[in-house]
Hints:
globular
Amino acid sequence: MALFALLVLAGIQILYWWYYFRRVSSLEIVNKKELTGFPKVSVVICFKGLPEDFEKNIVSVAEQDYPNFEIILVSDFSSPQDLGKMSDLIGGIKSKTPVRLINASKDIPGKKQAVYDGVLSAEGEYILFTDMDCRPVSSNWIKKMISVLTEKGESVVLGYGPMERGNNLISWFAGFETIMTALQYFGYHLADETYMSVGRNWMVKKSAYANNYMKMKGGHLASGDDDLMIQAMDDKENITFCLDPESFVYSKPKSDLSDFLQQKTRHISTSFYYPFITSLKLFLFSFSITGYYFLAVVFLFFGKISLTLIIMISILKWIIQTILHHKAFFKLDGMRHFFFYPLAEILLAIYYPVLGLYSVLIKKKSW
Length: 367
């Protein structure tokens, strides 16, 4: 019975890796076609406060190699000091790049209103979102994202936002968790089960956003405007993705456990608005990981199974997973996690129940 339970849970994990995540491994990720036109793009960045490296991040957006774009900075009731700093920065770059600073019309939890105000203010038909604490990896970010959208004639492009390298175990794990999240939402999208995006790197047609805004649920939530918009769209066939390395947008990982859990608690708050079958599948995957290691410890403690057998099953499971995901980890800039996958998965097994308890017991903060 103990052996059967472990084999079932291991089998569930391998099934997910084979059916969903393997799809990311087989992708052709570099778009080699040249743009034939340059439709106007509005880059919308909302902020409540300013991270210490905001100047570098904004400048990296302003220096994009694209001839027809603007930057819209939306202050969500920021402090006068932050507004002053932002005004000084704008004064130094607006001669090269059109930049506008506007204020959100309502002070409500989260940044949904600020995002919507930015979209309404945009002059471009294509809206590219990122966050104040994020940095495009190259000057071709806009070009790569818009080329995918215009080539395929879609309404939405899902981008990728990996983490920069951190300096402790928490930041290292945050990078791994980001990769696992990306494998899930890209893998599900490739299986025609799109359910989310990431707010720091996605593009949408202005008309599509405006037409679906009133359908968005979860208006009281402090985050997840990107996920809620994806859920509001009836035609998810008009959603595509971009995994070209030049389109990545990096952000600094949290290095404090409490800050990391608080951030992830906000992120998972929108999961209650996913389709039931999607939520069930996501839960089953996380349960299979936590359940596998939990039962392995319990069975070993009560002498139901030998340590040698547990190690043999685990090694076989890891080998199969490695075969299925090594290309995906390379494409998602995750090789620093790939070589330590067994350790990362054990930490993931602990992380899932801890995050669940934290989200229930700790009061959530607005963004």
